[in-house]
Write a structure and sequence with these properties.
By secondary structure, the protein is an alpha/beta fold. 39% of the residues lie in helices and 16% in strands. The protein is built from 9 helices and 10 strands. Helix 1 packs parallel to helix 9. The longest helix has 19 residues. The termini are close together.
Length: 282
């Protein structure tokens, strides 16, 4: 099983290049960075994680800029969005960003995506909360065309463009793996139909065994090999027993959650996570 680390890269935390180097030196397979362009002050949408929204949600760097910095400071660790709020982004521009990062990093990108929870945040970008998943499906379909065809065009309800030229194409073929986050029954079907894997949050994965079975059934129903879909558990604790339990359920990757904090706090936490991963493997 592979192990990654996740942190909100903020203006007050350890620099992302130092974090990436430290994670790579300790043998971690991947670095995952979340995304929020901003947080509306109205706070109408409740945060799924609890009553108080942590301040890193409105202090985080742009994930593609941060991952580019991480790419320049490392050689092997994979560079992942965890997650990219694609429904708040322009499709063609995002295709260019992902492909550019993949080429410049030597093919190390994992494209984690999701529909988001903050209705007013996405409304500021012109996306309606109730139609965000329909838009996401179209965006993923359009991204795949831009990444794999020389003269792609797409005509949907939310994404619409005539034939275009767009290079570079991603170094990974046919494109970087697309991993979707979320916990609803619909997310499992989305993962099985147009993504390459599923990424549940550890603290919200109460029915993980049942959901994994459902995911595999959906994949088979759509003519896909269930084994081709990856399972990445997001925000796991540094507990070898829990890591072993996730592995038994079929997880190919566990991603440790780190606080958005200084190097003095983060580096010892990285050591602790690395030690837990080694104990689990031994």
């Amino acid at each position: 099983m592979d192990f990654g680390v996740m942190m909100f890269p903020t203006d007050y935390a350890i620099r992302v290049d130092e974090l990436a180097r430290a994670a790579e030196e300790r043998g971690f397979e991947s670095l995952w960075l979340p995304e929020h362009t901003h947080i509306p002050m109205s706070r109408r949408s409740p945060w799924p994680g609890g009553p108080e929204l942590p301040r890193e949600y409105w202090h985080t760097h742009d994930p593609f800029v941060a991952l580019a910095v991480a790419a320049a400071a490392t050689t092997t660790i994979k560079l992942a969005t965890g997650i990219c709020l694609l429904i708040e982004r322009d499709t063609i521009t995002t295709a260019k960003q992902v492909a550019s990062l993949d080429v410049l990093s030597g093919g190390r990108v994992i494209f984690g995506i999701g529909g988001g929870w903050n209705a007013e945040e996405m409304e500021n970008h012109g996306t309606e909360f109730k139609t965000r998943w329909h838009k996401l499906r179209e965006q993923v379909a359009a991204l795949k065309l831009i990444w794999t065809e020389d003269e792609p065009e797409f005509h949907g309800e939310y994404v619409d463009f005539d034939p275009i030229w767009s290079w570079p194409k991603p170094l990974q073929k046919p494109h970087p793996p697309i991993i979707i986050g979320g916990h609803s029954p619909q997310v499992l079907e989305r993962a099985a139909t147009y993504c390459d894997g599923w990424m549940p949050i550890a603290t919200r994965a109460a029915k993980l065994a049942h959901d994994i079975t459902t995911l595999r059934k959906h994949a088979a129903q759509h003519g896909r090999d269930p084994a081709s879909l990856s399972l990445s558990i997001y925000g796991v604790p540094a507990d070898p027993q829990k890591l072993a339990a996730f592995h038994e359920l079929g997880a190919q990757r566990c991603i440790f959650g780190l606080p958005s904090s200084t190097r003095e706090e983060i580096l010892p936490l990285l050591d602790r996570c690395a030690a837990a991963a080694r104990r689990m493997d031994s």
